[in-house]
């Protein structure tokens, strides 16, 4: 077990380097010049641009820049935001807890409601109830989060005045409820569908027949025998979804004005501030990788047939 | 708890009447399935009975309704699509089809237990075998987790699994096929039921292991004086353990007989065909007989005798009239106990 | 390991050779009515599936709209008439008229914009799906077929790309282009999106590779390319199609989201996502300016998802 974790951690290093390198290259190698973007439309002196570039190390070869950046990152130095002159680590420390709160809220929602709906549908496959829930999830999936976001904002905030249209206090879970719902909707629909399929499939399995033949009460047949097996793929999926929820926050935070890393990264992008974007993106990659490691370990705990190899 | 056990242990008031009644009796059972291609009539009026300590072998090809009948007895048919339009399943004289779901559940595993064919898929892959065995005691007898585990180890010893105490926390996939089937048997035996239904218990196993598992089952059955319904398509398995045989075809019993009678003198062309298709050492070099044609489609069972399209002796009457299960007698009319054949020409078949 | 040996010896205990259980009745199921192939069976299922029929009709409708928008409206999506601006409310009964859905903030016909917006969405959606399918299939097949180092390398590469959050990656790439043509958007999304199909293709190829007929073809000396295209690809194609059709809806949603975030097609392009973004200021006073394009996006995504779902149900025998 310990050796497996160690090996997986080692394997994660090249993936982390690869992913961040690609993001880094996309940020700096593609057309679009951060320094020019910084100077805006004002007339600029090529010499000034060159000297700023030199200060920022932007005149070095790309790989060298990446190595410099990563060396800083490992030491906890994310660099400095050009526009605000604040250390990027400060920006992240401010914004990250907000996004974490939003993501945890959405994740809880996804888990409870998604699995709940999936179980309700899957236990009676091919009934009206099942088909209805499947169609509902399909409709949820087809609504991009900005569509659902504006729809709910319009209905709940403007029309019925149930909530505030934007979040003014991100520590207030009441205010976060709406953005969390919107953020959760897509993953929720997927989780419900996956749970439904998994339950419906396992329902037909031989070991379920055995459980009934043993004279176990239905509660136990479903709760112990069916659930343990059916939820294995769902747990795997949920772990991976943590990453998607965090990127999904870019749109949701924008709509509801939640001051989290989603808004920070979006604003940094429009200003073409590479350091901020790459910094936050690296953090997201790290979270995604950590989540997939946890999922793998959890998988082996839940399914004894999987061994740490 | 003790009071209940005492009443269960002491002779019940109607025990005297129990004695002359079979342990399990299936009467005119019908099962059908509603499928996309129409109604599949899987069981069409099956009658059989088993006494305590007796072994009934139910023989037939897949699709003959032998497993469906067993599932109906256990109450584990998928309904829908399955449906039981008519029939009775009497356990100790009581019709289980008229019982409530809860009453039936208490019989399952406790009084009637089942052994399935494929132990690997029939055991829950994510629960340890100790847990799955112990569950029987915890649910039906209310034992604690600890007591249940001790009982599980005892059971595993009982079915001759080596190092039971060390392996009780292992998972099904960690056992060999033969060992897994022993665990299935242990699970069925856990509460010392009155009746065990074994659905092709050895089909998935290696030939050498098959014999061991079969012997274990027969030994335990004798020891506990249980009724056993052995469902199989393997004539070799039947000969050694069964007391009587019911041969099924297209959802009906076509022949019943005490086991050695059947081998000696089959009274139905289908049984005869089955026996003739066994390779025999004394017929080395000769071409092996095979029943021509295929089992019928259950949504369109042929009229008359369902076997008529494949029967070498079929006459016009076979295509129009469904033969009932005729009592089979000696040539002189002398009674043959327990023998019956659903063939218009049983006389010709057995005596001709 | 020691456990294993114990079992073996016990299973092989001598003493019960009495039953020579070798006699077996022919155990064949009922006669199949007629042999159905995966594809004809799938087609049989699809024709009876109402979701498939509805989604096909909708998709055909959307395709026609994307190719010949002029058939649906005579108004131009770019003609701005400030006199009509967004206070020009929809006339829900004026079917197919320019003012059916009212006017946006610049006085352009929302109906015309919605009709002309179909082209961008569908071109990007279909384009990305095709690109991703080709790229993913090639990479996945190479990894699965050759195995060994090639597989390790390509699988790591897949892991790396999976590690990049899709939306974030697309934002980063597209943000650095000033002139975002349809081609640029397609390339950017395909660059990030090929991993899923590559994984499916790799898995399918590994499964098929071990099939007896492929082993036989190899033993008979068939060339690598012949084995790949004649034997492996046709059998790996069903799972790839399933993933691709479902992904199509997702790419249309992605295009709309990126346009909404301002990094989709250039500003001059007519796109639903962009219209939603521009209408967002009017959410309180003129909600129809963003609700109409929003609904169009959702209906389009829904059509393709239903289509993909129906195809999956028909092609995946496990779900039946």
From TrEMBL, chain A:
It comes from Streptomyces caelestis. Belongs to the binding-protein-dependent transport system permease family. Gene3D superfamilies: MetI-like. InterPro entries: BPD_transp_1_N, MetI-like, MetI-like_sf. One of its GO terms (biological process) is transmembrane transport. Residues 96-299 form the ABC transmembrane type-1 domain. This is ABC transporter permease. The chain crosses the membrane at residues 12-30, 100-121, 133-156, 176-195, 230-256, 276-302. The keyword Cell membrane applies. It is found in: Cell membrane. It is a multi-pass membrane protein. Its main location: membrane. One of its GO terms (cellular component) is plasma membrane. Keywords: Cell membrane, Membrane, Transmembrane, Transmembrane helix, Transport.
UniProtKB/TrEMBL annotation, chain B:
It is a peripheral membrane protein. InterPro entries: AAA+_ATPase, ABC_Ni/Peptide_Import, ABC_transporter-like_ATP-bd, ABC_transporter-like_CS, Oligopep_ABC_C, P-loop_NTPase. Residues 1-20 are annotated as: Disordered. Its main location: membrane. Keywords: ATP-binding, Cell membrane, Membrane, Nucleotide-binding, Transport. It is found in: Cell membrane. One of its GO terms (molecular function) is ATP binding. The keyword DNA damage does not apply. The keyword Thylakoid does not apply. Residues 24-275 form the ABC transporter domain. Belongs to the ABC transporter superfamily. This is ABC transporter ATP-binding protein. It comes from Streptomyces heliomycini.
Automatic annotation (TrEMBL), chain C:
It is found in: Cell membrane. The keyword Membrane applies. InterPro entries: BP-dependent_transpt_permease (IPR050366), MetI-like (IPR000515), MetI-like_sf (IPR035906), OppC_N (IPR025966). It comes from the Bacteria. Gene3D superfamilies: MetI-like. It is a multi-pass membrane protein. The chain crosses the membrane at residues 51-71, 122-148, 160-177, 183-201, 232-254, 290-311. GO terms for cellular component: plasma membrane. Residues 118-308 form the ABC transmembrane type-1 domain. One of its GO terms (biological process) is transmembrane transport. Keywords: Cell membrane, Membrane, Transmembrane, Transmembrane helix, Transport. Belongs to the binding-protein-dependent transport system permease family. This is Peptide ABC transporter permease. It comes from Streptomyces caelestis.
């Amino acid at each position: 077990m310990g050796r497996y974790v160690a090996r997986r951690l080692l394997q994660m290093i090249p993936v982390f380097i690869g992913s961040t390198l690609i993001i880094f290259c996309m940020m700096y190698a593609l057309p679009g010049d951060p320094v020019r973007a910084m100077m805006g439309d004002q007339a600029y002196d090529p010499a000034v641009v060159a000297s700023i570039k030199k200060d920022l190390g932007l005149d070095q070869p790309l790989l060298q820049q990446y190595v410099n950046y990563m060396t800083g990152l490992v030491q906890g130095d994310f660099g400095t935001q050009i526009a605000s002159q604040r250390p990027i680590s400060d920006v992240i420390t401010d914004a990250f807890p907000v996004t974490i709160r939003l993501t945890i809220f959405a994740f809880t929602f996804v888990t409870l409601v998604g699995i709940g709906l999936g179980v309700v549908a899957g236990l009676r496959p091919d009934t009206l109830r099942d088909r209805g829930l499947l169609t509902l999830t399909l409709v949820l999936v087809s609504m991009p989060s900005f569509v659902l976001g504006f729809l709910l904002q319009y209905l709940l905030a403007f029309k019925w005045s149930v909530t505030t249209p934007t979040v003014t206090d991100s520590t207030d879970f009441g205010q976060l409820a709406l953005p969390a719902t919107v953020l959760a909707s897509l993953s929720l629909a997927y989780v419900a569908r996956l749970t439904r399929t998994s339950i419906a499939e396992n329902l037909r399995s031989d070991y379920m027949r055995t459980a009934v033949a043993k004279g176990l009460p239905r509660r136990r047949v479903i709760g112990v025998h069916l659930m343990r097996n059916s939820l294995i793929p769902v747990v795997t999926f949920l772990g991976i979804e943590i990453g998607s929820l965090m990127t999904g926050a870019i749109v949701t935070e924008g709509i509801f004005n939640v001051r989290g890393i989603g808004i920070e990264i979006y604003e940094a992008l429009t200003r073409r501030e590479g350091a901020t974007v790459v910094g936050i993106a690296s953090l997201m990659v790290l979270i995604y990788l950590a989540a997939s490691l946890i999922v793998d370990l959890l998988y082996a705990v839940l399914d004894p047939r999987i061994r740490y190899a | 708890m003790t009071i209940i056990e005492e009443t269960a242990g002491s002779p019940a008031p109607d025990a005297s009447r129990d004695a002359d009644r079979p342990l399990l009796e299936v009467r005119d059972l019908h099962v059908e399935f509603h499928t996309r291609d129409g109604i599949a009539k899987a069981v069409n009026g099956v009658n059989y009975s088993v006494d305590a300590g007796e072994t009934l072998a139910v023989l037939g090809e897949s699709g003959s309704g032998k497993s469906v009948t067993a599932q109906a007895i256990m109450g584990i048919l998928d309904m829908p699509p399955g449906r039981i339009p008519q029939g009775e399943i009497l356990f100790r004289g009581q019709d289980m089809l008229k019982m409530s779901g809860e009453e039936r559940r208490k019989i399952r595993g406790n009084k009637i237990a089942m052994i399935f064919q494929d132990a690997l898929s029939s055991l829950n892959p994510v629960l340890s075998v100790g847990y799955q065995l112990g569950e029987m005691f915890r649910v039906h007898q209310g034992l604690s987790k600890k007591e249940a585990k001790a009982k599980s180890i005892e059971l595993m010893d009982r079915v001759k699994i080596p190092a039971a105490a060390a392996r009780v926390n292992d998972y099904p996939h960690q056992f060999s096929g033969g060992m897994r089937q022993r665990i299935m048997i242990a699970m069925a035996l856990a509460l010392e039921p009155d009746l065990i239904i074994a659905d092709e218990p050895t089909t998935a196993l290696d030939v050498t292991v098959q014999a061991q598992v079969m012997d274990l089952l027969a030994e335990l059955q004798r020891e506990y004086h249980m009724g056993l319904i052995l469902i199989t398509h393997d004539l070799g398995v039947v000969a050694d353990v069964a007391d009587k045989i019911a041969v099924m075809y297209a959802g009906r019993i076509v022949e019943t007989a005490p086991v050695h009678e059947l081998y000696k003198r089959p009274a139905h062309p289908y049984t005869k065909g089955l026996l003739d298709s066994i390779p025999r050492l004394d017929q080395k070099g000769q071409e092996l007989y095979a029943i021509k044609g295929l089992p019928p489609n259950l949504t369109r069972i042929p009229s008359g005798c369902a076997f008529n399209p494949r029967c070498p002796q079929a006459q016009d009457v076979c295509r129009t009239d469904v033969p009932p299960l005729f009592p089979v007698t000696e040539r002189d009319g002398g009674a043959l106990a327990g023998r019956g054949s659903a063939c218009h020409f049983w006389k010709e078949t057995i005596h001709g | 390991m020691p456990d294993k040996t114990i079992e073996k010896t016990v299973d092989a205990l001598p003493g019960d050779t009495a039953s020579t259980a070798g006699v077996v009745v022919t155990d064949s199921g009922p006669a199949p009515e007629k042999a159905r192939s995966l594809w004809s069976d799938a087609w049989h299922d699809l024709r009876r599936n109402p979701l498939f029929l509805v989604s096909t009709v909708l998709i055909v409708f959307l395709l026609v709209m994307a190719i010949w928008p002029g058939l649906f409206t005579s108004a131009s999506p770019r003609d701005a008439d400030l006199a009509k601006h967004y206070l020009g409310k929809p006339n829900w009964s004026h079917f197919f008229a320019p003012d059916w859905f009212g006017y946006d903030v610049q006085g352009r016909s929302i109906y015309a914009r919605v009709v002309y917006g179909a082209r961008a969405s569908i071109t990007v959606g279909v384009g990305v799906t095709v690109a991703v399918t080709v790229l993913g299939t090639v990479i996945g097949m190479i990894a699965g077929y050759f195995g060994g180092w090639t597989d390790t390398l390509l699988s790591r590469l897949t892991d790396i790309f999976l590690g990049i959050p899709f939306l974030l990656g697309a934002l980063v790439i597209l943000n650095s282009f000033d002139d975002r043509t349809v081609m640029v958007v397609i390339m950017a999304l395909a660059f990030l999106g090929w991993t899923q199909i590559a994984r499916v293709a790799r898995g399918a190829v590994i499964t098929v590779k071990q099939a007896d007929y492929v082993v036989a073809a190899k033993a008979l000396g068939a060339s690598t390319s012949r084995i790949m295209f004649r034997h492996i690809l046709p059998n790996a194609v069903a799972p790839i199609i399933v993933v691709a059709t479902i992904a199509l809806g997702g790419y249309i949603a992605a295009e709309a989201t990126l346009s909404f975030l301002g990094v989709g097609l250039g500003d001059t392009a007519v796109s639903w996502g962009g219209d939603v973004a521009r209408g967002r200021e009017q959410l309180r006073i003129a909600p129809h300016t963003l609700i109409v394009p929003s609904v169009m996006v959702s209906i389009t995504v829904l059509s393709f998802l239903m289509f993909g779902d129906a195809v999956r149900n028909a092609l995946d025998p496990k779900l039946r």
